[in-house]
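Lab notebook, bench 4. The sequencing result for the construct came back, and we need a structural model before the next group meeting so we can plan mutations. Quick request posted to the team channel:

Model the 3D structure of this chain.
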Amino acid sequence: MPDKMMPDHWGYVFAAYGVAAVALVTYWRHLVRRARSLVARQRGKEGKAA
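Done. Here's the predicted structure in token form:
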């Protein structure tokens, strides 16, 4: 009988962390791009109103 009931799957664990990191970085970049777009729109509206 083996010492461990379940084998180690560290490759899958690291892959899952890698996929999560890529997803979070991608979403962060999306949010930064969207924030810059909103700031640019606000500046454009302020310039036209004056």
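The first helix runs from residue 10 to 49.
Will bring this to the meeting.
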